[in-house]
Task: structure prediction
Amino acid sequence: MMMKADGIGLYIHLPFCVRKCAYCDFCSFAGVDGSIISEYADALASEILSYRKRGLKVDTVFFGGGTPSLLSPEDFRKIMRAVRESFLLSDEAEITLEANPKTLDRKKIESFVSSGVNRISLGLQSIHENELKTLGRIHSYSEFLETYRLCREAGIDNVNVDLMY
Result:
């Protein structure tokens, strides 16, 4: 007999990036075509659906990577639909999306929010342009500030900022 877990956390890995950062040890692949990302999203949704009828309650969903914000809004909706069909998703569930500031715009942020995202983790890493360049980041500090503002305007009260020291 399978025991039903209460309040598990679900981690969904998206191993794709625009460019692989020099410091990154995570499983990720840079420069991948959008159609491959979409195929990966289909496979993820299918895998998630295989957990239906197990009665697992989920309190947190964390999209990590890689750069999950590379997902199209349609692919993100598809994955979240599979999560909702497969798990007992708490009404208060924290749904986090890791993001590179350069990969988000107002429309994409609003789409992620409408699909349930209520927490964004922005990979700033540094406020110094020369350090961002050395780290291989694709965004500038000013682009981060704009993305942060857009997240707040879209109603995301919980914005995490990753910094390196």
